Q: What sequence folds into this?
């Protein structure tokens, strides 16, 4: 009986909304870091021989991508995304700029009550 209440309370609109907010924040942070890494830090590393920004941003992006992945898993389970939708959304998080489109699509579908 307690497990039924726990499972149903996990998938309430409020719980899904909170998971969606966590996912959106992490998607934005990871997307911005990836753009800074690819378009600023990597060119500085290869063209100006300044490796520090690549090291710092690369490490930060790697750790924060892990948190993004966990927030996406949480949202996918709560909102009952399809495995294909989940994989495409997570993979899009590794492509500069595409991550923002994937986040907007996932947000719109989740808010509409559709499976991603």
A:
């Amino acid at each position: 009986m307690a497990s039924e209440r726990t499972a149903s309370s996990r998938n309430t609109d409020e719980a899904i909304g909170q998971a969606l907010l966590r996912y959106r924040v992490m998607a934005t942070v990871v997307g911005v870091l990836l753009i800074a890494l690819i378009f600023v830090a990597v060119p500085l590393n290869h063209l100006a021989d300044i490796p520090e920004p690549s090291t710092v941003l690369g490490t930060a992006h790697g750790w924060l991508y892990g948190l993004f992945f966990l927030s996406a898993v949480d949202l996918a389970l709560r909102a009952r995304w399809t495995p294909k939708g989940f994989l495409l959304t997570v993979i899009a998080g590794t492509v500069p700029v595409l991550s923002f489109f994937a986040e907007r699509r996932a947000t719109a579908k989740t808010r509409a009550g559709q499976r991603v």
Summary: Residues 13-47 form the longest helix (35 residues). The mean pLDDT is 91. Residues 31 and 97 are 7 Å apart (CA to CA). The helical segments are 2-10, 13-47, 52-79, 83-92, 98-111.
